[in-house]
Every structure is written in structure tokens, then in C-alpha cells.
Amino acid sequence: MTQDELFKNLIAHTKEYGFIFPSSEIYDGLSAVYDYGQMGSELKNNIKKYWWEAMVRLHENIVGIDSAIFMHPKIWEASGHVGAFNDPLIDNKDSKKRYRADVLLEDYIAKLEEKIEKEVEKGRRKFGESFDEEQFRATNPNVQRNLAKLNSVKEKMVAALKSNDFTALRQLILDCDIVCPVSGTKNWTEIRQFNLMFSTQLGNTSDETGIIYLRPETAQGIFVNFLNVQKTGRMKLPFGIAQIGKAFRNEIVARQFIFRMREFEQMEMQFFVKPGTELEWFAKWKQIRLEWHKALGMGDEKYRYHDHDKLAHYANAATDIEFDFPFGFKELEGIHSRTNFDLGRHQEFSGKKLQYFDPELNESYVPYVIETSIGLDRTVLAVLSGAYKEEQLENGESRVVLKFHPALAPVKVAVLPLIKKDGLPELAQKVMDNLKYDFNCQYDEKDSIGKRYRRQDAIGTPLCVTVDHQSLEDNAVTLRDRDTMQQERVSIDALPEIVDKKVNIKYLLKKLS
Ligand code: ATP
């Protein structure tokens, strides 16, 4: 099966089992907006919890806030979003499809990278044991040619984007012979800038003065509360402020399911440090964040860093943590060294001092900031695509199973009476009552036990408890493990502890250093 087919199956699966629905579906949907169903919202809440506890609870010097979506419009002038939060868009005149010019070039670069890797793989197969990868990369003419092309395109793209030279950017698209994937032609329009912020009106004014924006990131809500939190929390540098919340961007090209949405959620943390120490902290946060991802056990090879060639106007270092989605490696989280840009600008625009008095140095200054910014929905997609498995079983049957980390699974335990009579439902209900205050449980008595196991596999429930006739006599049940499908007999009294050991998020958190 191709990755494309697998991705389509995953999308269909998430709908069928109540994870993700297209928004406003009965009205034919709303482009790039999605709703989370009964399973999806549990999964999302568990991811939020994992992030919040890892950030706020495990770091004594990080606190969490929840700032409003609407903010004073001047904030977005200060942050640079009114002037510079733009994407360069280009249309194909034949297909009438719209693209981001930089994304067309990035896809082209990714294809060159793929060609290089394929050539290296070919070499590895040809030379076997004696293969010297470094030497091969340095001398193979095909690798060298593609690498030279790649570097040249990258360089020109970065230069054009940095100087906002859209004529050069368009020429580069033409020079690379990039065609529209739909029409197959190079009939491109000029490139235009497009601001990604959604605006609306505050109160009953309909003139320019009433315009406010839906926040395109949660970070600014943290910056403008920097002094409030620092003072009321008596925080000493270095310290961080974390927040989870909705953000809105009028994305030009909204594709790839919940990867790029117009309404989405971010989990952001701004870490305030002494000027001059920021790059050290940047390196630390890069490592801490990668460790957080890897602890989920989806495979270390699924993650990589991607250092930015083109730094945003506010940053002096930036990297992405990329995840190997079904459509390739793409950004999951951004880690940025944002200097004192944001606090400095808010100080300038508001006329209020946003400084920290450093008792050791006996002086005040505007702190520097390291930001970690992760998309909650992208993490949901990463977790779903990492967990989704179509398995062929030994008995000839097949199953679809979501092998989530148990701490993230929406339902932790399914309680299943073998049949619907003889007092089994009553005992199963007692088992439920004993577990439900600590764990999200599901009771299911419909259909054969095999079908019920499949349903639980399909939503990723780590444990199934089956109550049978013998349970009435020995007070024991059959416990089935989602991944191994092994079954064991355990006492009902021992269940809470067994389940806790398997699913409690604290064991996941303890893996983090
Ligand atoms: P991209 O280059 O993919 O547009 P970005 O660099 O603009 O992303 P940031 O501004 O750094 O993204 O936002 C931080 C995080 O928020 C991203 O790493 C991503 O996980 C998430 N994010 C950004 N835009 C979207 C979106 N439209 N839909 C879902 N998640 C998003």
C-alpha cells in the first residue's frame, strides 16, 4: 500500500470511529476547518495534559496562563503581524488553483533531496559491505549535480524571500520548470502578498477604528502579560509562561487534513532569559522538546531537526522539529530564539516599561526569549499516523489498530460481559464502577466478543476486561492487551493497580529527564 492510500484510510478511519469530522458537514463542510468527535476530543485532551504537565508541573520555573483571543489591535502592529504576516501567493491561470510560492519551491527542493537519497541507496545496494557513504556523496556525479542544483535553488529562494523580491521568486519557479500539479502547465500569475489574519469588528462600530483580529498565534498573549505574571508570581529569570489556546490563520492553501487548518490550537511557551544566555537556552529547549516527542515511543527515526535558512524578523536562531507524516517530513513544532524583539516592541508601542530588575546585576533590562511552539492538531495527526496500523493476523483475519501510547488513548479500559445474561452484565457494571473514577472506561455488551475486541482496537483501547461465568465464582476476569493480544486471568481486586501501571500519564512523564 502506498503512503497516499494509507493516509486516505487513516482519514476515513478517524471519521468512522468518532475522532475527527469535517466542520459543518451537513452543509457540505467548511474548508480547512474540522471538529473533534467523542474520541478525538479525549485524545486531544490527553495530549494537552501531557504537554501541560511536562511544561508547567515538571518545571518549577514555568507557569501557565489562559489569555483572551481578542486583543488590542495595536498588539498586532507591534508584533509585526499587520505589516509582515504575509504569504506570497501565486495562481495557475489554467487550473485556477492557488499556491504558496515558497511551498512550491520547498516541494521542488524536497524532490531533489529524495533523488539524492535514492542514488545513495542505490550505491549502498551496489557496493554492499564496502560502501563508503561519505565518499559516495562527495564523488557521485548524479548526487553532486542534484546537490549543486538544490543549494542554488535554496540560496536564491532565501534571498528572494528575505528581500521580498517577488519577480525573482517567480522567475525561480519558471527556471525550475515547476508546473501546477493539476493542469501540468507553467502558466503562472504574478506573485502577490496575502495577509493571513482574520479580522472582525468590535462592538457596533463599522469603521476602521473598530477592527480587531482573531489572534494568529497565542504567543502575544504571553508577552503582554509578562509583567503581570512576573510581578504577581514573583518570578525570577530564567522563567517561562505557557499557554494552550486557539489561533486563526486564513491559510491560502489548506490541505493535508488537520495539518494545515484555518482554526487550530497551539501549545506555546515563552522562556524569558538574561540577554547573552539565549543561545545556550535555545540549545537546551531543542533537546528537551525532542525528548518529549520521543517519549511517546513512535520511533526516534520519525523526528528530525530542521534549522531555518530564512530567519523570521524577530529571531536569531530557529529550528523546527519535523515529523515523518504520511506525506513526508514536515514541521510539527517550532523552537525560536526571539531575542528581545517582542517585549521591546510592546514597550515601544504601549509606552509601558516591560523590564526585569535583575537583583544580581542591580540593573533592569528587557529579557530575551526562547519560544517553543507546537501545533496541538498537528500533534494529534502525528500521534494518529504513528499509531495507525493495518495488521494481518495469524488466523487469517485482519485488524485496524491504533497503537497509541496508553497514556494518550481516549479509552483506557473496555469492560465486556461475555454474554448479556446470567448476572454477567451486573458484575461487569461493578467492575466499571470500581474503575471509572480513575480511568475513562467503556462498557460494551453488543455483538460477539471478537467484534467487540476489534472495535476497541480501532479506537486504541489498551486493555479489555472480559467478565465470564467463571468470574462469578473466582472473582477474576480475562485481561486482553491491545498490542500483543495476549490474554491473562487476573483478580478483579487487582485491576485498578494493573490498569494504573499501564495507563497513568505519570509513568510517561517520569521518562522525561
Ligand atoms: P508552517 O510553515 O507550516 O505554515 P509556521 O512556521 O507558520 O508553520 P508557526 O508560526 O511557527 O508555524 O506556528 C507554530 C506551530 O503551530 C507550528 O509548528 C504548527 O505545529 C502549528 N501551526 C501553524 N499553522 C498551523 C495551521 N494552519 N494548522 C495547524 N497547525 C498550525
Compute the separation of the termini in Å.
38 Å
Alpha-beta classification: alpha+beta
Fraction of residues in H or I helices: 25-40%
Question: Rg, please?
Answer: 26 Å
Strand content: 15-25%
Number of strands: 23
**Major sheet attributes:** 7 strands, mixed
Explain what this protein looks like in three dimensions.
It is a single chain. The strands form seven sheets. This protein has a seven-stranded mixed sheet with strand order 3-9-10-16-13-12-11. Helix 5 runs antiparallel to helix 7. It has about 525 residues and is α+β, with helices and mostly antiparallel strands. The protein is built from 18 helices and 23 strands. Strand 4 and strand 5 form a beta hairpin. The two termini are about 40 Å apart. Adenosine-5'-triphosphate (ATP) binds next to strand 10, strand 13, strand 16 and helix 13.
Set out the fold topology:
Blueprint: H1 3-16, E1 20-22, E2 34-36, H2 38-57, E3 62-65, H3 74-78, H4 81-84, E4 86-91, E5 98-100, H5 101-127, H6 133-139, H7 141-162, H8 166-175, E6 192-195, E7 199-201, E8 211-213, H9 219-223, H10 226-232, E9 239-248, E10 263-273, H11 278-294, E11 303-307, E12 317-325, E13 328-339, H12 341-350, E14 356-358, E15 363-365, E16 368-375, H13 376-387, E17 388-392, E18 398-402, E19 413-417, H14 424-435, E20 441-443, H15 449-459, E21 463-467, H16 469-474, E22 476-481, E23 487-491, H17 495-503, H18 505-510
Parallel strand pairs: 3-9, 19-20, 19-21
Antiparallel strand pairs: 1-2, 4-5, 4-6, 7-8, 9-10, 10-16, 11-12, 12-13, 13-16, 14-15, 17-18, 21-22, 22-23
Helix pairs in contact: 2-13, 5-7, 5-8, 7-8
The structure holds adenosine-5'-triphosphate (ATP).
Catalytic activity: tRNA(Gly) + glycine + ATP = glycyl-tRNA(Gly) + AMP + diphosphate
GO biological process, one term: glycyl-tRNA aminoacylation
Function: Catalyzes the attachment of glycine to tRNA(Gly).
